[in-house]
């Protein structure tokens, strides 16, 4: 008989372009989730050091300094910072799927490290194909990243999977995860806002609807139903005061919905049913067992 586990959906603001701050915040969120009884914890896409929406809002030349800082604050998998996170995972005794921008030599990758209850990285994968302008900054994942599922060490009958953002749109990648017999799926996303509207509340026709919170959460819901698995949706948020730091204070899409933090975390049953109340705009740890 499968064990009864508590799973946590995190919605939180990163420490933008701050490696040390990101490590500290990740550890704090792991501890918070554990204090609430969680056994499995995941993180949004590139939670360390945050998703740089400025790559969509600014030209590569104008954004060069910001992304240079981003590169320096990305996390090296085999580093003292990662050892601190792994030690915190071991102390908590939980299974964690950590989403971060990985710096390997002179290349960045959109990565997920699967850290077991002993604080050991039992699987590591990179986003197979970064999306659109992401390809200017992050490299492609390699063949081993097609493996998207790893078993819990404490509960080996429970298999935990994960994909980043628009990997959820890749039909064959989803199918291959189902072939790996996933039970719990970590659906990692960045900040995404509602479809922009005009002053009368009518949707702007020139904005692509697939780049919205609504469509992103629907992709995650499809994984739950297709894969007959529980899906935890993990998202970032950005505060109004952080938008200037992130260089999106003049980016229309990020500012169309006043007070919207860009989060849409959720937990779905294998039937695609919502298992938690949709969170408020700003975050927290949401649990279901």
Automatic annotation (TrEMBL):
Residues 5-289 form the CN hydrolase domain. Its EC number is 3.5.5.1. It comes from Colletotrichum phormii. It comes from the Eukaryota. Keywords: Hydrolase. The lineage of its organism: Eukaryota, Fungi, Dikarya, Ascomycota, Pezizomycotina. It catalyses: a nitrile + 2 H2O = a carboxylate + NH4(+). PROSITE patterns: CN_HYDROLASE (PS50263), NITRIL_CHT_1 (PS00920), NITRIL_CHT_2 (PS00921). The active site is at 45 (proton acceptor). One of its GO terms (molecular function) is hydro-lyase activity. InterPro entries: C-N_Hydrolase, C-N_Hydrolase_sf, Nitrilase/CN_hydratase_CS, Nitrilases_CHs. It is an enzyme of class 3 (hydrolase). This is nitrilase. Belongs to the carbon-nitrogen hydrolase superfamily. Nitrilase family. It holds the Pfam family CN_hydrolase.
């Amino acid at each position: 008989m499968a064990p009864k586990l508590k799973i946590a959906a995190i919605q939180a603001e990163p420490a933008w372009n701050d490696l040390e701050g990101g490590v500290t915040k990740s550890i704090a969120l792991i501890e918070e989730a554990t204090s609430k009884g969680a056994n499995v914890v995941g993180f949004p896409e590139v939670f360390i050091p945050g998703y740089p929406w400025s790559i969509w809002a600014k030209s590569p030349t104008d954004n060069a300094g910001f992304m240079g800082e981003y590169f320096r604050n990305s996390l090296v998998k085999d580093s003292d910072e990662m050892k601190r996170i792994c030690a915190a995972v071991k102390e908590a005794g939980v299974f964690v799927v950590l989403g971060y921008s990985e710096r390997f030599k002179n290349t960045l990758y959109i990565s997920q490290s699967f850290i077991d209850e002993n604080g050991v990285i039992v699987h590591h994968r990179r986003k197979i194909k970064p999306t659109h302008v992401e390809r200017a900054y992050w490299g492609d994942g390699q063949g081993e990243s097609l493996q998207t599922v790893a078993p819990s060490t404490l509960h080996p009958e429970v298999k935990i999977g994960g994909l980043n953002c628009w990997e959820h749109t890749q039909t064959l990648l989803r199918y291959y995860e189902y072939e790996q017999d996933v039970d719990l799926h970590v659906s990692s996303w960045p900040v995404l806002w509602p479809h922009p509207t005009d002053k009368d509340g009518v949707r702007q026709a020139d904005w692509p609807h697939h780049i919205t919170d609504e469509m992103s959460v629907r992709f995650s819901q499809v994984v739950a139903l297709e894969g007959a698995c529980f899906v935890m949706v993990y998202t970032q948020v950005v505060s109004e005061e952080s938008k200037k730091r992130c260089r999106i204070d003049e980016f229309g899409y990020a500012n169309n919905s006043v007070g919207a933090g860009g989060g849409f975390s959720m937990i779905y049953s294998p039937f695609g049913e919502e298992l938690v109340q949709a969170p408020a705009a700003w975050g927290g740890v949401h649990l279901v067992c």
